Amino acid sequence: xxxxxxxxxxxxxxxxxxxxxxxxxxxxxxxxxxxxxxxxxxxxxxxxxxxxxxxxxxxxxxxxxxxxxxxxxxxxxxxxxxxxxxxxxxxxxxxxxxxxxxxxxxxxxxxxxxxxxxxxxxxxxxxxxxxxxxxxxxxxxxxxxxxxxxxxxxxxxxxxxxxxxxxxxxxxxxxxxxxxxxxxxxxxxxxxxxxxxxxxxxxxxxxxxxxxxxxxxxxxxxxxxxxxxxxxxxxxxxxxxxxxxxxxxxxxxxxxxxxxxxxxxxxxxxxxxxxxxxxxxxxxxxxxxxxxxxxxxxxxxxxxxxxxxxxxxxxxxxxxxxxxxxxxxxxxxxxxxxxxxxxxxxxxxxxxxxxxxxxxxxxxx
Length: 365
Description:
The protein has a domain at 77-245: TIM Barrel. The strands form two sheets. It has an eight-stranded parallel β-barrel with strand order 1-2-5-6-7-8-10-11, surrounded by four helices. Strands 3-4 form a two-stranded antiparallel ribbon. It has 15 helices and eleven strands. Strand 9, helix 12 (255-266) and strand 10 (271-280) form a beta-alpha-beta unit. Helix 8 packs parallel to helix 10 (189-203), helix 12 (255-266) runs parallel beside helix 13 (293-311) and helix 13 runs parallel beside helix 15. By secondary structure, the protein is α/β, with parallel strands linked by helices. The protein has helices at 2-23, 45-48, 59-64, 66-75, 87-90, 100-111, 129-134, 138-155, 181-185, 189-203, 220-235, 255-266, 293-311, 332-335, 355-363; strands at residues 52-57, 78-81, 91-93, 96-97, 115-123, 162-167, 208-213, 242-245, 248-250, 271-280, 318-323.
């Protein structure tokens, strides 16, 4: 009888427990989406890259706008001057040189542990009007240019570590620019350019000397002419150390074409400088253009792909990647586009890092 009561009691407990389980509302298992950690704002390109990260700057903006100044010295470790080192800015009259702004930039770079890349000694657009109007004969023309090069390079010997000796002498098809002063002045303009490299080297034997141009990786004819010039220079003892492609490209530029042309440029074995990069988003120059999230991401992807290409080249060919400006607030593309809106750089108009900045970072990893 006692055993029967015990069994009944146990059965009652089992039924009660089962009932409780059936009446309990179980919470569904919620799978949280993965947490996407935004790129850290403390990670800087200049600290991650194993090459110099530069920007083209204007001395008046460094002096006059604290956000510009702080962003530049905080984020970059190489300086190029947008205007202050060009011939027409420095060489104001036959025997007169204006060095104040150039001196300021060089001193600023030294104070902020930056290298300086000199841009540019010989460019058809920067010959001063007084020089063009002088109509010098060939010998006098060259002697004047030699004096200019050696005066400027010599002044900054050991302070400006590299120079674009010559800039944009070729058309996209590889022919020489007819509007260039040297085209009509010399029977062999390339030989004259080579002598300019020698003049710069004599003034500062330690400085790295570059030829710089635009659309190099896209324009096969121009690239071929540059490579032929580099071979000619090396065979004749002309001190050329590197080639620069400005990389003024677009979010729509064919990435395969960039990759193939870049590989061809790297095949020279010279130092490679991505010297003036910006990536245009308002590709049709629409006056009402609004920068969308989609275009921001496209721009970031282009920066990423280009940086990946550069980061993969041999270490002894890496020189620098230089952005042509710091912020979308100040870009030559706005100045030259009749007021059309453009946002080609890594920092927005408020100096915040754009997706393009983090695309650049991603390309380094």
